[in-house]
Protein 1
Amino acid sequence: MSDGTRDILLVEDSDPIRTAFTILLEDAGYHVRGAGTGGEALRLATERLPDLVILDMGLPDMTGIQVVQRLKADPVTASAPVVALTGRDEDRDRRACFAAGCAAYWVKPVDTHRLVEAIPGFMAGEPQGIGNRE
Amino acid sequence: MDDLRLFLLGDHATAERLRKVLDREGFRVVDAPPEGTPAIVLEVDGTEPSPLREAAARVEELERSVLELRNLDVAKSQFLTNVSHELRTPLTAIVTYGEILRDGLLGEISERQRDAIESMIGSCRQLLAMIEEILTYARSSATIIDIRPVEFSMAGMVTEVRRMNESLLSRKQLDFSVEIPADLPDAWADPDKVAHVLRNLFGNAIKFTSERGRLRVVARRAPGQPGWLQVEVADSGIGIDPEHHELIFREFAQVDASRARVHHGTGLGLSIARRFVELHGGRIWVESTLGEGSRFFFTLPSVHAARPVAGAAQEAPPRE
């Protein structure tokens, strides 16, 4: 953002959850762009590089893994850190997320304080493997 | 098995069915008895009901039933997994909005409003914990759970699980003590599974102990079992009638309806705990008298336990 406000791309297909997180993240001082589908997320990320992508793994048009893979494969968007936010607390999904290049894996519902506190670290590209279930 | 040769005669369809079954069982079925090879000739009559034909049909029928049951079990687990995931989405919205309201992001709130919202969030998290239990159960009964053993200290594990329950412990003002000798050998077990067992035992101990009660965790060398550890979680709570000491480790069991009313739960926690302990070759049990608290015990291999040699798991022939 030109005014120095950090930009978060929030990809989540549930409207109530997207709205709730938007309120939360805006309150924490971030600019939030919301996307309800993987296609929209990729378009918005290419349009302007976000400082962080918070990505729901279950989207209607493609899997979250596919979205991460495409973001990481495109030199324009590869540098944006991606945090998985998911309803699936399964080891297999966790491993797949990290393998695709996610910086962290958060299982919903997250403690909103902890998530907000962790965001600067994600944006600074701190070590992988952080989440709320480890 | 392959030197027993059978020669099937008679009605083609029946012979084929029988051949399929025998093939699968490892018999060699030949079309004609080769020279000099001992063979049993079975005559399958196409018109007369023969015991052999009936047996073959019965075997097939049973195999079909087993397959159907297995598919049903997988389907049931898959269904539970899907439902659990689906339930998380609306609950996430409720919890997140609750926290937004509680923290005043949408405007100032009064102390009473805050308490009400706090209760709402707490109840939601309780519901989520139950969903997670169902999910764990579905996963553990689906097929295989892999145990990934590593070395870790029981003291560290107990501290971690205690930390997760800190707010509950202090809310109920429970007197909590830990007794773990400094020279206790490290455990050789899957830390996720052991944490799950401990969380469950802690949770029950807290749940069934009234305010200002006592909770004690002890880890020691398992008496009479060299190389093994014994962990004890003891509380001064309501206790369990001896006639229910087995029942509580069974699926979906809660001791009585009155208890279930006060203490909500899926009744799966202890059966999952038992499954996880038994996967390590250990044992879990309870010693308790009604009204006099409970002592739950489980055993785990330590780093000094005799470990199965690498590859031992492959000794048993794979089963189809």
Note: The radius of gyration of chain A is 13 Å.
Protein 2
Amino acid sequence: MAELSVEESQRLARLFLTGLASEADVQRLSAALPEDQTLALELLAQVQTALDDVAPEGLSKDQSHSVSARVEALVTPRVKRRGLFSLFKRLFRRKPAPAKPEAAPEPASAAAPLAAPAADAGAPMDEGAGLEEMAPIAPSAVDGAPVAPPAAAAGEPVGAEGRQGPATAPAPRRPSGPQALLMGLAALLALGLALWGLGRLRHDRRPAPAPVAPRPAPTPAPTPKPAGPPRRERAMAVSGSAANEPLPAAIPFITPQAAGQLP
Amino acid sequence: MTDEEIFQGAIDGDESALQELVSSTREHVERVCAFFLGGDDSLPGAVVGTYSRALNSLGKQGPPSIPLKSWLSILATQECFPTLARLRGDYDQQSRQLEDLAGKIPTLVEISSDAHERVNFMIRGDIEDIPDQHRQVLSMAELEGLHMLELAKRLGCSWAVAMNRVISARHALSRRVRESFGL
């Protein structure tokens, strides 16, 4: 039904509220009211004016508790559960940058948001909420443009990005279905690569088994340094097991006196 | 939160936005509903129904283009209206019953051929015999000719309560007339 003119709205509202409306007037009012916001406001305005803007008694205490519970029951099923997806989103959410007069491209920190969709998109989504939730972060990753919406920069509460903020905040572009799917796959791949790389790094950095500490060999009496024994034999002379065995007298670089002092 | 943030957050299922939608407007919605239905048993249902309308509308039609409280005022009025229309229907039906009743009283039929005028005479003749609380209301509504908005203001009550009180008073009168004339 077409909206009524302002004069007609006022007339119908007045007739109805005073109890003077005909049956046809009431029917017309009933038919127009669901669509005609002006008519509803007119009804309210006339009642308010008639009562000098003093509202009659409202809900009693018991009624108020009952209404609270019933409204809560209305709201609760509409709350979308936030799981792992939300956790990732919060972890990788960029801190709001201070508002700058000139939009300068962000340096290295601009890479940070890229990690967010990568981590987020791999997480399971609930009830198709992913597209809406991805939107605030995704544009920076897709477009490569610095994203610092004024609303976010102004210290907006967590979870407020992407909503209709002040007029200066551009509405975030939401990825289309296939685009979001591709982003998700890419993010999953990136996450897998990162985990694989992390595993490799840990493997490479694993320390070699600690060598058994050699027992100190008995120090031989100072002897004049012989001229160049083979390096391998010299190493054997100080290695653990070799040092504990009696040395053969035939070793050329040990003098007979020194050999006599050995156990 | 701005209104736009509340709207969008509520659409997205954001818990804080949904809570804000209710907590920041609850008093306002109650007040709007109270102008129409304050003191009536249907008031709690109207408040709940307003939020139900709001949440359904957000889900189906998206965010409105008007401020949150104005939008809820409209929804609250729309939610209250069926109760008002029902009361209005009860009032009209009762008027017809009173006219029928007055038409069965020979004296009144002799005095006037106008049904409405006969009812008026009937009220004048028996108003002293009904309880005080009904007499006062019936006197203002039927004899002084106050309309419902004036009556609500005079009684300091909502439109629905004023209408209910007139209906109750006329019912008491009707019972008294039936008893008197054995109808």
Note: The CA atoms of residues 68 and 240 of chain A lie 82 Å apart.
